[in-house]
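Give me structure tokens for this 257-residue protein.
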Amino acid sequence: MQTKLDITKNWLPRYTGMPLDKFGEYVLLTNFDNYVQAFCQKFGCDIYGVGRPMQAATNAAGLTIVNFGIGSPNTATIMDLLSAITPKGVLFLGKCGGLKKSTELGHFILPIAAIRGEGTSDDYFDPAVPALPSFKLHKFVSDKIVERGFEYRTGVIYTTNRRVWEHDRAFHQKLMDMTCIGIDMETATFFIVGHKNQISRGALLLVSDVPTTPDGIKTEASDKVITESYARHHLEIGIEAMTDIGDKGEHTRHFTY
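Here you go.
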């Protein structure tokens, strides 16, 4: 294996357990095993990769879902590995912490950009390169959110490698000063590595906690409530949006910048 393509074609099945010819042209990425299970129950398809770092499945229409794990290094890994199949579009279904009063539990966010606070993306582009989605892909997602009668917000997400920061008041102030709408551990890396690999990408984030308030920090109980109330809608919007793009044959690639 002498080229990046040689490596990724070998490693994508190794990480997911799914042969390359089973991957579809459009992909949903998530951190959640229950999303993959719900996807397979809906479409009657098999889960690959049980016992491996990542799990994957593809429905009869050619839409693939992958649970890649948590954090920016895993995000970079899956976005590099997906270059083996050159997908036409990838949508990340993740959760984030809301940082503004207008961002409530259960709201959806379509990020217009992400701040690269994680460090991983620096291995791909100079820090001055913005982390942006493919806006045409977001249009399809936006349409599906509205069709289902949900509200959504747009804004900038701060992506960090820190998992435990809620106690850090100085970091809270930093987030406020940057006027971010939400915080997560994947979006900036996802946008940047997607750009590096010329993969059209978008992110639909579900606000699962309000971490800058003492009562809003995520717990097992509070996360369970959000999952039971909104996870099904989150997944369905992603499925419908990416299926619609495939059916209409739209080109979603971002302009080169």
